[in-house]
Amino acid sequence: MRTLVSAAVKVKLDVTWLQQYLDEISEEGDMEKKLSDLMELSKTTMLVSIAAKKDMVERNRKVFAAEERLKKAEKRVQEARSRAGEVERSVKVFETVREKVQQDIKEVEDQAQYRLSRLNELL
Question: Per the domain annotation, does 122 fall within a domain?
Answer without folding.
Answer: no
